[in-house]
Design a protein that fits this description.
This protein is of the alpha+beta class and 67 residues long. It is 42% helix and 15% strand. The protein has a three-stranded antiparallel β-sheet with strand order 1-3-2. Strand 2 and strand 3 form a beta hairpin. Helix 1 crosses helix 2. The longest helix is centred in the middle third of the chain and has 10 residues.
């Protein structure tokens, strides 16, 4: 970076997220089709998830009492 470029946000591929959550990639595809699941970006056919969006989605789905 030369000082004028913004740092690139951490991005996850569908495979990265499927591995993180231990779900099939197909499940993530179904969620995208249904309009559920975490927000994603699609550029030129490539799907990417911003780490911040994944973490926000995870935080919205916490079940139980937090200490």
């Amino acid at each position: 970076m030369n000082g004028t470029e913004a740092p690139r946000a951490a991005m996850l591929t569908p495979r990265d997220l499927a591995d993180r959550w231990r779900v099939p990639q197909r499940t993530l595809g179904q969620w995208r089709y249904q309009g559920s699941g975490p927000a994603y970006i699609k550029i030129g056919g490539a799907v990417r998830y911003r780490a911040a969006d994944v973490e926000a989605y995870e935080n919205e789905h916490v079940v139980g009492v937090s200490a």
